[in-house]
Amino acid sequence: MRRNHFFFSLSFLMALMFASDELYAQSKKTLLNIEITPVEADKRITVTVNGKPFTELVYTDTLEKHFLYPIYAPDGQLVTRGFPFKPRPNEPTDHPHHIGLWLNYESVNGLDFWNNSYAIPADKKDKYGWIRTQKILKAKGGKEGQIKVAATWENQKKQVLLDETTTYLFKADDNKRIIDRITTLTAKTAVAMPDIKDGMLGLRVAHELELPSKEKKTFKDDKGNVTVVDASADTAPSGNYITSEGITGDDVWATRAQWCMLYGKIGEDTASIVIIDHPRNPGYPTYWHARGYGLFAANPLGQKVFSKGKETLNLSLKQGQSVTFRYRIVIASGKEKLSKEEIGLLAGDFFQNTK
């Protein structure tokens, strides 16, 4: 892998670390209280900030994975699409497997975990995988809220391919919400996750954060399923992407970067959503599977597709082996989008304090 272009110089990285130490010390003084409230009857856990909604972990077995939904910006605006879980008027209804914030992959021993949803016919379900939550290991609030989940990646016969342990960490101040997701996958049998397009961390954003488009677009997956995304039918979409490499708009797709930000107008404020990759992740810096229609995803394993065959990353695990994926998601509200300097400090803090 050609990494030199993406790594900071040593002196700059050290300066970033020292700056992040100062940021971390200052932030501990201004962090708001996170409340974590399990609602076991509904298989969900609510996360609030000083009593105001932040997000929920939804882990019902009637859906194909656990996910965070809805997600609110600090000013109270929703930044996630409602469909298909709780549809809202005038929003697009493509890709029903895009729900909130999630993590899965298109090919695990040939099973498609990414594209599974209620829309898959029963006679084709055997080609798709399911992530079942087995236990909530921890749920506690404070200045840093924490939810820890044990889950299994299974085929339709409920045979387990991977054990998953995921820790969600939540922090908040007056104008930012932070979610750190750390997921470890441990192979219960030999597992192959070949290089493919759809993965790994995904977020489906609100209609307002889509990139404006005047064209209908068609997407086809590896099984030949076709999805048509209509052009924007109104003036609501105002989103734009920018990466740590300075690439913007639709050109972000299939490029590498340490972080990517989506920003746009919702209500009176500008919402900024930043996903930050971690240097210890496989395939760092990740390729961005970020689409104008509202899919905001990081896929470090889809290198062959994104590089047009110049690179390949086929991940395989022997029985008992593990791999860990670490991501930080920042949601901010303000008159302006987050600056590169602010994101750099948030990234430095993430790198230094997440192993």
Describe the structure.
Residues 1-12 have low confidence and may be disordered. The relative contact order is 0.16. The protein has helices at 10-30, 303-306, 340-353, and strands at 34-39, 44-49, 52-58, 67-71, 101-105, 130-140, 145-154, 160-172, 176-187, 191-193, 199-204, 217-220, 226-229, 240-243, 259-266, 269-276, 287-290, 295-299, 315-317, 322-334. Strands 6-7-8-9-20-16-15-14 form an 8-stranded antiparallel β-sheet, with helices on one face. The chain is mainly beta. A hairpin with a 4-residue loop joins strand 6 (130-140) and strand 7. 11% of the residues lie in helices and 39% in strands. It has one domain.
Unreliable segments (pLDDT under 50, ≥5 consecutive)?
1-12
Give the amount of beta strand, in percent. 35-45%
Count of alpha and pi helical runs: 3
Helix content: 10-25%
> Based on CA inertia axes, which overall geometry fits?
globular
- Based on helices, strands and strand pairing, what is the structural class? mainly beta
**Strand order, sheet with most strands:** 6-7-8-9-20-16-15-14
Mean pLDDT: 91
* Cα radius of gyration in angstroms: 19 Å
Record the SSE blueprint.
Elements: H1 10-30, E1 34-39, E2 44-49, E3 52-58, E4 67-71, E5 101-105, E6 130-140, E7 145-154, E8 160-172, E9 176-187, E10 191-193, E11 199-204, E12 217-220, E13 226-229, E14 240-243, E15 259-266, E16 269-276, E17 287-290, E18 295-299, H2 303-306, E19 315-317, E20 322-334, H3 340-353
Antiparallel strand pairs: 1-2, 2-3, 3-4, 5-11, 6-7, 7-8, 8-9, 9-20, 10-19, 11-18, 12-13, 14-15, 15-16, 16-20, 17-18
Helix pairs in contact: 1-3
